[in-house]
Amino acid sequence: MRFLVRDRILGIGDDWWIEDEHGRKVYLVDGKAMRLRDTFELKDAHGHVLIDIHQKMFALRDTMVIERDGEALARIKRKRLSLLRNHYRVSLVDGTELDVSGKIMDREFAVEYDGELLAVISRRWLSVRDTYGVDVVREDADPALLIAVAVCVIHLAEKEGEED
After folding, report:
1. What's the CA gap between 16 and 146, in Å, rounded?
2. d(CA 68, CA 37)
3. How confident is the model at residue 95 (pLDDT cuts 50, 70, 90)?
4. In degrees, to the nearest 5, what angle opens at C-alpha 144 toward C-alphas 55 and 125?
5. What domain of life does the native source organism fall in (predicted)?
6. From its phi and psi, is residue 45 left (phi > 0), alpha (psi between -120 and 50) or beta?
7. Residue 46 in this model has a pLDDT that exceeds 90
8. How far out from the chain centre does Cα 53 lie?
9. Of 62, 23, 68, 27, nearest to 161 (Cα)?
10. In the prediction, which pLDDT does 90 show?
């Protein structure tokens, strides 16, 4: 499954559609303005909220939290002892950890579980300017979760880039 995401600096209050490979609008990323913390909602094409994404308020390092139906699903933060700045850990509430690594700012990275590829985020296959693809490799993977992970990692990397 391949999804096309319009690439823009993720700002508070920004909304944008994510399309499937056939150009159908599948998900809406709804940036929430006027909040104390960075907040986004991932909605389906009918406007139903599938995933809430927000920045954890009181954390030593920038951390994004993904929730589904009001329940925590995952936490995302940059790996502590990584030599590369483009290395993030996704800790799911069931104890599973996903690894995100690559060139985040260039939109060329992968999401893996225990060495197995789950999704590839890339601009390489696309001719549409200012767009990157989220290619969900595993059939049994949760595309909404993997898209939310990509949104979080890019948001964290952009925020970190602003601070340098």
Report:
1. 17
2. 18
3. very high
4. 105
5. Bacteria
6. alpha
7. yes
8. 9
9. 62
10. 96
With CA atoms as reference, report the closest residue to 24 among 41, 7, 40, 4: 4
Structure tokens that stand for 82 in this block: 């990584």
- Locate 57 and state its tokens: 């308020």
Nearest-angstrom CA–CA distance, 136 and 142: 8
Tokens encoding 53: 């994404």
Q: Element (H or E) spanning 158, and its range?
A: helix 143-163
Sorted by sequence, the CB contacts under 8 Å of residue 16 that are 6+ apart come out as: 5, 6, 8, 28, 29
Per-residue confidence at 43, pLDDT binned at 50, 70, 90?
very high
Say if residue 7's pLDDT is above 90.
no
In the block, residue with structure tokens 């949760």: 142
**Mean local confidence (pLDDT), 15-33:** 87
Report CA-CA distances (Å) from 8 to 53, 139, 158. Answer: 17, 28, 11
Which residues, at least 6 apart from 135, have a Cβ–Cβ distance to it below 8 Å?
1, 2, 3, 119, 120, 121, 122, 125
